[in-house]
Amino acid sequence: MPSEVTEGKIARFSRSLTRLEEAPSYAKSRYQTDVFQEANRLLETDEGLEFLYQYAQRFDEAGVFQDGPWEDPSKLQPPLVAGSLQAKGLPYVIEMLSDLRMLAIAEGKGSHPKVSQEMAMDFLNEVMALNLDILFPNASEASRIEEKENTIETQRLFQFISQYLSSSALSETLIYEIERLTAQRPITVKRTVSMIKMAKEMLRSETSEEQRSTLEGYVASIEGPSELSHTYQLPNEYRKQLMGLSTEELRRESELLGLSMRKTGLCSPHHSVLARFLSRKSPHLLPVLLQLTGKGKANLEEHGELIHQLIKVALFPSTCQSVYGLALLLERGVLSASPVMPGLRRMIELDIRPEVRSALFNTVGEGEGLTANSILLAGVISVLGQPLGVGQGLNPTCQAARGISLWAQHAPGYLLEIIPRAARDGDIDMVFEGVQIHSKDLQGGLAPDLHPELDPVSLVLVPHLDRIYSEMMSRVALRGEDGHRWVNPAFYGNWVQKGFSTVIEPITGSVTDYPGFVRLFYATHHPEYNDEYELIYPNPVGIFITNVHGKMLGFHAVSIQRIAKSPDGEYRVYFYNPNNDGSQNWGQGIESTVMGKGELPGESSLPFEEFTSRLYAFHYNPYEQGDAYAVEAEHISIVKSLAIDSWGHEYTWLSK
5: Cβ–Cβ under 8 A, 6 or more apart, which residues? Predict the structure, then answer.
C-alpha cells in the first residue's frame, strides 16, 4: 500500500496526465512539463516506478513524448539510454518514462504501430546487457571516480525492469559476469549474491539447457547445494535433519557442500550449520566439508582444538562465507606462525568499542543473535584465508586495502596485533622517520565518511590506516620528490624495496625520460632482462587509471604478485587489485583478465607491455637489476605509444 504522501503524488500525476490527454495536439507542450514534474516527484519514492508503470500504456496516446527525441520509439538506441538517465533535468525523467513505455509494450500492456512486442523486449534486453555495471554496481576505480547523476534512481529502474525480462542473451551475459566475479574469490560477496538472485528469476523464463544448468548451480551454491539443504532451506530445520543422517549420508552431504564451495568460492547458510554440527558430532568429516588437501588436513589435525573453537565462536548462517575462508586458512598453513594462534584467541574475548560494535552489527541482519566478537573473528578468518579477497569497496582507500592484504600474506602476526588495537583502543600507531604517529590524533584521510560495504577487518582498520597514510604523505609533500618513495616502506614494512622510480617529475609535473623509466622496469622485473630474479614479496606500485576510451581518471594502488608466462607462453604481470573487480577495460584494447590466463584466485593480469604502459611508480631492489640496455627498442616504442595516447594527454612530455 502506498503511503499517504505517495497517494497524493499519484493523484497529482494522474490529473496532469489526464489534462495532457485532453489537450489538443498543438497545445500538448503546455501540459507536458506538469507531467514531467509530477513524474519526477514519484521517481523520488521507492514505489514510484510501480505506479508510473501502471500508466505507461497511456503515455504515447496522451502525447507525453510528442515533438521530442523520444517520440518515435523505433528510433531509440540502447547505447544512449544510460547517458540520458545520468543527465540532469528533463532528459532523465523522459528517459525513465520512455523505458517504462517500452516495458509496457514488451509485456503486452501497451502497443505502438512502429514497435512490436518482440522489438521492445529486444530493446530492453540490450539495454540491460549494456548496463550490467548499473544493474549490479561494481567497485571499480572508474565507477567510483566517475559517479554519475541519478545513480540510485537509475539502478532502481534497471532492477525494476529486470523483474520482467529474461532472454538467452541476457542470461549468457549474466553467467559470464557471475563467473568473472566468483573467479576473483572476494571476501565480500554481496554483489555476486545479488546477481545470482537475479539469475534465479531468469530460471522462470526461456533459457537454454546449458544456461539453465549453470544458473541452477550458482543458485544452489548460495541456497543449498545438496538435495537435503535445498529441501530444508531454514537453518534450524536443516540442522534437525542432519541429526538423523547415517555416517555415510553425512559424508556425502559434506562432500556435496564442500565441492560446491570449492567450485564457486560461495557458501550457503547450510555450510556453517554443517560445519558446527560436524565439529561437535563428527569432526573426522570436517576435512571432507572443507575439501582439504594433505597440507590442510595436517594443519587441522595439529590445531584441531583451536579450529573447533573458531567454528563454535565465528561460523553462523550470517557469517557462512567464512567457512571458505577457514578452508583456505588451513591450506595456507597460517596457524604455524607463532603469533597467529594467540592472536586469534584474543579476538574471542576482546573488549570492542561501542562504535566498532555498531559498525560490525550493521554487516549482518537484525535478530541474528551474534556478538561483535563473532563477526570480527569471522572476518579475520576470511582475511587470513583469502588475502587477495580484501577489497576497498566504494572507498578511495586502495592503500589501506593493499596493506591489509600484504600483512595477511606475509605478516599475519602484525595484522593480529593492530586489529585489537583499533577495535579495543580506537588507535593504531606507526613510526615514520623516528616519529610515532597515532591515528587517534589525526583527522580526515581520503575517506572520512567510510562506505560500509567492507569486510569486518577492513571496517575496523581502514579508518585508522587511511589517516596514518595520509599523514605520512603530508609530511613529505614539500620534498620535491614523490612521497611514496619514503612512505611505502614505512607504512607497509621492510618487505618494500628501497629503490624507487616514478614517471612524473614532481616539481614540474611533466614526464621526463620515459624510455629510461620503462627500461628500468624491464631490467628489474621482466624475467628475460632481470637475471630471472623472482619477486619474494608483493611489490606496491602506482598505476594510471583510464576509462574505456583511454582517458585518464586518476591514480590507483595495486601490488604486483608475480611475473610469469601464461599458459600460452606470454609474459604477464599478475597483480592484486584492491577494488575486487580486476577484469576491467582501460581503453586501447587493454583489458585485464581474472581467469583463463593463468591467474590464481584474486589475481588480475595483463601482458607485460600493457601493464607497463599504465605504470607511474614502482619500487625495486637496486642489487637485483639486470641489463636495461638490452631491452629492445620495439618494446619501448609500443609501451610509449600506448602511454602517450592515453594518460599522456594530461601531461607535458619533456622527452618523447
Answer: 45
By C-alpha distance, which of 319, 329, 330, 328 is closest to 297?
Answer: 330
Mean pLDDT (10-residue bins), the chain, 656 residues: 71 94 92 94 88 95 94 86 87 95 95 91 82 68 61 87 74 83 94 84 73 91 96 96 97 98 98 98 98 97 97 97 98 95 96 96 86 98 98 91 97 97 97 96 79 93 96 94 96 94 92 95 95 92 88 92 96 92 82 95 97 97 91 96 96 83
* Centroid of chain to Cα 403: 17
The residues near 449 (Cβ < 8 Å, ≥ 6 apart) are: none
> CB 426: neighbour CB atoms within 10 A?
14
**Which three three-digit cell numbers place residue 363?**
554487516
**Quick check: 619 and 500 in contact, CB under 8 A?**
yes
What is the C-alpha end-to-end distance of the chain, expressed in Å?
66
Residue tagged 595477511 (cell numbers): 408
Q: How many CA atoms lie within 13 A of 176 on its CB side?
A: 12
How many alpha carbons fall within 13 Å on the CB side of residue 562? Answer: 10
Residues ≥6 apart with Cβ < 8 Å to 234:
none
* pTM, two decimal places: 0.82
Tell me the C-alpha distance between 140 and 117, whole Å. 36
Q: How many CB atoms lie within 10 A of CB 106?
A: 23
Amino acid letter for position 372: A
All three cell numbers of 604, joined, read 588480475
Residue listed under C-alpha cell 601493464: 611
556, 615 Cβ separation under 8 angstroms: no
Tally of CA atoms within 13 A in the half-sphere of 438 that contains its CB: 6
Torsion of CA 50, 54, 55, 56, to 10 degrees: 80
pLDDT on residue 162: 82
Taking the C-alpha atoms of residue 341 and residue 501, their distance in angstroms, rounded to an integer, is: 39
